[in-house]
Specification:
The chain is mostly helical and about 400 residues long. About 55% of the residues lie in helices and about 5% in strands. It binds acetyl coenzyme *A (ACO). Acetyl coenzyme *A (ACO) binds near residues 265 and 267.
């Protein structure tokens, strides 16, 4: 659609910035045509099948290379050591109303963490990297601590011998998870770690481009991730699954939603027009965990939804769809699903924010003005109440 902007320059308006290339990066690539995803050049299927843990992916995103065993061990110890949350921030979490959404608490407490960070006020590249690693460690700890506070249970410190996935489950449930569960959590984390210029990463980069500090950029990203069209979709997926009692009800439920023009959460994607490569891995784990937990019905309902939406709309599930059932099987309540997503995507945000700082130019697009010009200005004393305004008594 060709339009003219206020400077009378010819402009193309791309609603939702669809297809706009707004940054150059080697961190990750979402190949929508071939339904592939690359982290630092590595195909997501290789990452999912061969990495030993999520922290290996964090190392890759921040350093550009896969770590040796020694480098990985040192990095894991460093990250787990940074999971400690200042007491003042824990106290804040305790006084926030229990009805608040975990993503709102996370946004508030991440913002608060900036005041207690030992590098607060230092926005050099080195200090930003240290703060970034701290946030990668602290966000999952905040999420698990909030879960324990809500259940009136003691907050648990991370176990330095456990990796990040095991620590998250340990800090949630109070016991070291079995291997199937820790591997599922690892997979969730490493599949969500980065995804090109998705909405929350873009918002982090916009904030970083003003030279604001890394906590400000991550707070922006958290606010953006919460929305149901982005990271908030996983929670809505479980809400939908809970409303369907059995496989026989799926047809009617989905058909009625589609007939009303409603969106099916966990389906569709701006870039992938075929299957999201991450969904393939999560579908498999979802089937396995639902079977093991004796809740096979949940997987069957999900799978039927997938078939109907594909048949009726030609739309595939995205990462959020099967993430819901995987998290459910791991004992995470649905209100926390997006916060678990954030516990992983923080690694991509940090990599992108550091990337933005290192080669910065203010991100400041323009808009097409549709208003009037040079309207007659009437001073306030001479303005008349329009007849349509209700008379105040
Ligand atoms: N259910 C039903 N119809 C859909 C869905 C869906 N989930 N997604 C897209 N469509 C339809 C739209 O109604 C539209 O149809 P129309 O052309 O007949 O009007 C068409 O597909 C194109 O949709 P757009 O909104 O233009 O696609 P866009 O690229 O802007 O949106 C989005 C992508 C927001 C992800 C969309 O697919 C959606 O709303 N999905 C549901 C929410 C969701 O799962 N979000 C998570 C995305 S993954 C992530 O962020 C981690």
């Amino acid at each position: 659609m060709k339009k003219f902007n206020s400077n009378n320059h010819e402009v193309n308006i791309l609603r939702g910035l669809d297809g706009v290339v707004a940054a150059e990066t080697d961190i990750s690539f979402v190949d929508g045509v071939h339904a592939d995803l690359y982290y630092k050049g590595y195909n997501i299927h290789d990452i999912a099948d061969h990495t030993t843990s999520y922290v290996e992916v964090v190392y890759l995103l921040l350093n550009g290379e896969l770590p040796t065993r020694k480098q990985l061990k040192e990095f894991r110890v460093k990250v787990v050591a940074e999971m400690r949350i200042p007491t003042q921030v824990i106290k804040m979490m305790e006084i926030i109303p229990p009805s608040s959404h975990p993503m709102d608490v996370l946004r508030t407490t991440v913002s608060a963490l900036s005041q207690f960070d030992s590098d607060s006020g230092d926005n050099s590249q080195k200090a930003s990297r240290r703060k970034g690693i701290r946030l990668i460690a602290q966000i999952p700890a905040l999420v698990a601590s909030l879960y324990r506070i809500r259940r009136k249970e003691n907050i648990l410190s991370p176990d330095p011998h456990l990796n990040m996935a095991k620590n998250i489950l340990y800090m949630f449930h109070g016991n070291v998870p079995e291997e199937t569960h820790s591997r599922a959590m690892d997979l969730l984390l490493l599949l969500h770690a980065d995804h090109g210029l998705n909405a929350s990463t873009f918002s982090a980069r916009v904030t970083a481009s003003t030279q604001a500090d890394i906590h400000a950029a991550v707070s922006s990203a958290l606010g953006t991730l919460k929305g149901p069209l982005h990271g908030g979709a996983n929670e809505r997926v479980m809400k939908m699954l809970m409303e369907i009692n059995n496989v026989e009800e799926v047809d009617e439920y989905i058909n009625s939603m589609l007939a009303q023009g409603q969106r099916i959460m966990g389906f569709g994607h701006r870039v992938y027009k075929n299957e999201d490569p991450r969904a393939k891995h999560l579908r498999k784990v979802s089937e396995e965990l639902c079977g093991l937990s004796g809740n096979r019905k949940l997987y069957q309902i999900s799978h039927k939804i997938e078939n109907i939406v594909l048949k009726k709309k030609g739309i595939y599930p995205n990462v959020d769809f099967y993430s819901a059932t995987v998290q459910h099987a791991l004992g995470i309540p649905k209100e926390f699903y997006t916060a678990i997503f954030a516990s992983s995507r923080i690694s991509g945000w940090v990599a992108h924010i550091l990337d933005q700082y290192s080669n910065n130019r203010l991100i400041r697009p323009t808009s097409k003005y549709t208003g009037e010009y040079n309207k007659k200005f009437v001073p306030i004393a001479r303005r008349k109440t329009p007849d349509t305004t209700p008379v105040q008594r």
